[in-house]
Amino acid sequence: MKPYVCSCGNTLYFDNSRCLVCQTEVGYDSLQDCMVPVGPGESHLRCANGVANGVCNWAVPPSAQAQFCPACALTRVIPPLSVPDVLPLWKLMEEAKRHLVYSLYRHQLPVVSRNADPTAGLAVEFKMSMPDQPVATEHNDGVIVINLEEADDALRERNKKNLHEPYRTLLGHFRHEVGHYYWFLWFQRGRAQPGVLEACRQVFGDERASYEAAMKKHYEQGAPAGWENSFISSYSTMHPWEDWAETWAQYLHICDGLETASSFGLETGVKTKQIDLFTKEAVQLPAPFAKIDPTAFLTLLHRWVRLSPALNAFSQSLGYKNVYPFVLSIPVARKLHFIHACVTTIGSPQVEQPRKGWLKSLFAGQPSA
Question: What angle, rounded to 10 degrees, do the helices at 196-204 and 240-263 form?
Answer without folding.
Answer: 90
